[in-house]
Amino acid sequence: MNAVLKAKPMKSMATDLKSALASQGYVILPSTLSSTELASLRSACHEARSLADSGQWRHLRTLPKQFPPWSSDPTEGIWGIQHLLHPDMPSRDVFAASYFNDTIVGTVEQLLDCKEDRLVMELFNLLIRPTRDFVLRWHRDDIPPSASVQEEQRRLEEPAWHAQWNLALYDDESLIVVPGSHKRARTEEERAADPYEKNMPGQLVATLKAGDLIFYDNNILHRGVYDIGKERMTLHGSVGHVAGGNARARNVLQHGTREWVERCRFDGLAESMKERAELMRQRLVEMARVDGEGVGFSQND
Q1: pTM for this model (two decimals)
Q2: What is the structure's pLDDT at 7?
């Protein structure tokens, strides 16, 4: 059964959010978008998809690679569109209003148990239906499969210093997780399994309806299944904590964010949200300056 939270008083909700994420490695918040917000985001995403398909947007996740760096050539197929907050993205204001809104930022504050002045702008991307079926192998985002049991457990016990989410704009069953696996090293059976194993013991399909929001530990054991028969437009984002240091710098800067974040502006946002966005952007610039040299990539792909 999926870990789904219903609306509750804020203090109780914060406790339940942290408890679910700590125990299961993920938590689903249902129906977080109004019909107007959903329509606006869908329109912006379809526009971004058209730009990507026509070669006018070069920041892509292209088949068959799972991890960065990716080719900017869309001819082999696209499964993701990068850098929705980029200053050259036509619908950046629509995407920014989603990324910096109270639902996202307030939930991150609760999960990281911190105030807004500790939050860092990180990544905001779009996961889409490719032109052919495509699957991601079982993985943890920042721990390679070559890690020993001891190394894996040590890395899993380190503070996460970020929160990561998927916001489904259409019904989505692409994300498959092994609940609880974010707290332990892989079992012998998991280590021996085929990287594309279809029935990993204990696996669960994270079933999302349009407008549902899932936060999940990026080092939970998970994979993705992309079905060309089903529309997919799912916003994929993360917000960091200033204490994240070099580890978060690697996760974020490996995607090429450093190349454009200095030019990023949020003049199209409401004043209070604009101030929030600019301060979070400044903390990303500072992270790149202090912790961003020679960060490399999280995975060899």
Answers
A1: 0.93
A2: 42
In the chain, the amino acid numbered 98 is S
**How many residues in total does the chain contain?**
301
With the CA atoms of 28, 33, 37 and 41 taken in that order, what torsion angle do they form, in degrees rounded to the nearest 10?
Answer: 20
- The three-class DSSP label of residue 21 is helix
Q: Degrees (nearest 5) of the Cα angle 228, 252, 245?
A: 150
Beta-carbon count within 10 A of 54 CB = 9
- What DSSP character marks residue 136? P
Place of tokens 């929001």: 213
The CA distance from 66 to 192, in Å, is: 20
**Cα gap 287→297, rounded to integer Å:** 16
How many CB atoms within 10 Å of residue 52?
23
* Peptide bond between residue 64 and the one before it cis (omega within 30 degrees of 0): yes
Ranges in the chain, pLDDT < 70? 1, 4-15, 291-301
Q: Is the dihedral of CA 250, 280, 124, 8 positive or negative?
A: positive
Alpha carbon separation from 81 to 139, 147, 210, 212, 292 (Å, rounded): 20, 29, 19, 20, 23
Per DSSP, helices labelled H in 100-148 are 102-112
Can you read off the two tokens belonging to residue 174?
């692409």
The one-letter amino acid at 123:
L
DSSP string, 89-107: -TTHHHHHHHHTSHHHHHH
Helix (H, G, I), strand (E, B) or coil at 47: helix
Please give the structure tokens belonging to residue 242. Answer: 């200033």
